[in-house]
Specification:
This protein is α/β, with parallel strands linked by helices. Helices cover 48% and strands 8% of the residues.
Length: 351
C-alpha cells in the first residue's frame, strides 16, 4: 500500500492532478478495517506535500456523488507513458481511480515527478502520533543491539508460492492446504525448476541454518517482524533462543485491537531503526525498508538467497560443506553490509 501510494504521488504530479487521500482495500485474511488515517498522519502529509502536489482529504461535493473512471495500468509493460495513456481519461472524466503499472521505471520520470515521489516516500509519510508512540515503545523494549528478521512462512505465502515441503508438522500441512484453494503445488520437473529459480520461501529452519553459515551468533537478539500464523517457528527458536515478537513485548487493549495494517506499521518502524535487517523474501515491505534504511544511512541490510540455498542443496551439499558454500554465496552482500535489494535510486540519499 505504501509503495502504490508513493507511485500515486508521482503519477499525480506527472498528470498535474489533485490527489484525494486514498482508502485502503479490505483484506479479509487480515481481518482488516483500518484506513489511511489510522496509520499515517494525514495533516502532516498534506503540509509536507505543499508545493509538490495538491492533496485533499475528500472529494468536492459536485464530484463526490460520481463513480470514478477506473484505469488499471497494473499489467502495462515496457515504455509505458502515463501522460499519453492516462491523461486523456483524466481530462475527459475529471475524476479517475488508478492502479499503477507494476513495471514502470520511476527513474525515467521527469525531475518534478521524481521530487514529488521522493518527498512523499521519505519526507511526508509518517505514522500517526499514537501509532508512532506505540512503535517507539516497542523499539525501546527490544534488547539491544538487535537484528530485525522479516520471515515469511505463513500458510497463504506458502500456498501462493505453489511449493511443497518435506517434514512439516501436520498442523502446518493442514493450514497450507486450507489456504491453497485452486492454486495447486508444482510437481515433478516443474517443481524442481520453480525451486531452483528461488521461488520457494525459506522455512524458519532453513533460515537458522543460513544464519549459522553467516556466523551470526546464536545468542543474537532477534526481533521477528512477521504477521500472525507464522509456521514452524520452533525451527528458528530452537537454535536462536533470543527471539522476541511484538505480541510478547507489548500489552494493552489498544494492541490487541490492532489490525494488519497497524501491526505491519510497527514492524516497519522497528525494521528501519534496527541495527541489522535481514529478510528471507524480496517483497514490498523488504524493498521499502531497505530503501528507507539506505536513506537513513543504515546499510546493514541483507536478503537471504533462496536461489542459492536451492541450488546448493540440490547438489547434495549439507553440513559444513553447505555452510561454507552459503557463506560464499552471501559473502559480498554480508561483508559489505548492503544486501542485494539496494538498486541505484534517484532520490537524494544522505550517504
Amino acid at each position: 500500500m505504501r509503495r502504490d501510494f508513493c507511485d500515486g504521488i508521482g503519477i499525480a504530479r506527472l498528470l498535474n492532478a489533485t490527489l484525494v487521500m486514498p482508502k485502503f482495500e479490505a483484506a479479509a485474511y487480515w481481518n482488516e478495517s483500518s484506513g489511511f488515517a489510522d496509520v499515517f498522519d494525514v495533516d502532516y502529509f498534506i503540509q509536507q506535500m505543499d508545493g509538490f502536489i495538491k492533496v485533499v482529504k475528500e472529494l468536492p461535493p459536485e464530484v463526490a456523488l460520481k463513480e470514478p473512471f477506473r484505469v488499471d495500468c497494473s499489467k502495462r509493460k515496457g515504455q509505458f507513458d502515463y501522460i499519453e495513456s492516462v491523461l486523456p481519461s483524466l481530462l475527459k472524466y475529471q475524476f479517475i481511480s488508478i492502479t499503477p503499472a507494476m513495471s514502470q521505471r520511476r527513474d525515467r520520470y521527469p525531475l518534478h515527478a521524481k521530487a514529488a515521489l521522493c518527498q512523499a516516500c521519505y519526507g511526508a509519510l509518517r505514522l500517526t502520533r499514537s501509532l508512532e508512540q506505540k512503535a517507539a515503545e516497542l523499539l525501546e523494549a527490544i534488547p539491544k543491539p538487535f537484528l530485525s528478521l522479516h520471515l515469511r512462512f505463513e500458510p497463504d505465502m506458502v500456498a501462493y508460492s505453489q511449493c511443497e515441503y518435506q517434514g512439516l508438522s501436520p498442523a502446518s500441512k493442514d493450514a497450507i492446504e486450507a489456504a491453497r484453494g485452486d492454486r495447486k503445488p508444482w510437481t515433478g520437473e516443474l517443481a524442481r525448476i520453480w525451486r531452483m529459480r528461488g521461488k520457494c520461501p525459506l522455512t524458519p529452519n532453513e533460515t537458522a541454518f543460513i544464519f549459522q553459515a553467516l556466523s551470526i551468533p546464536t545468542n543474537t537478539n532477534i526481533y521477528l517482524a512477521a504477521g500472525d500464523g507464522l509456521m514452524e517457528i520452533e525451527g528458528l527458536k530452537s537454535i536462536y533462543t533470543n527471539v522476541v515478537t511484538k505480541s510478547e513485548l507489548l500489552s494493552g487493549e489498544d494492541f490487541l485491537n490492532m489490525h494488519g495494517n497497524t501491526k505491519a506499521a510497527l514492524d516497519y518502524y522497528v525494521s528501519i531503526n534496527s541495527d541489522f535487517y535481514v529478510a528471507t523474501f524480496f517483497g514490498n515491505m523488504d524493498k521499502m525498508v531497505a530503501a528507507m534504511r539506505a536513506y537513513k544511512g543504515l546499510h546493514n541490510t541483507v536478503f537471504l538467497s533462496r536461489r542459492a540455498y536451492a541450488e546448493l542443496t540440490s547438489k547434495g551439499l549439507d553440513g559444513k560443506e553447505l555452510k561454507q558454500a552459503l557463506w560464499l554465496a552471501h559473502k559480498e552482500d554480508f561483508a559489505m553490509g548492503r544486501g542485494s535489494a539496494l538498486p541505484d535510486c534517484f532520490c537524494d540519499f544522505k550517504s
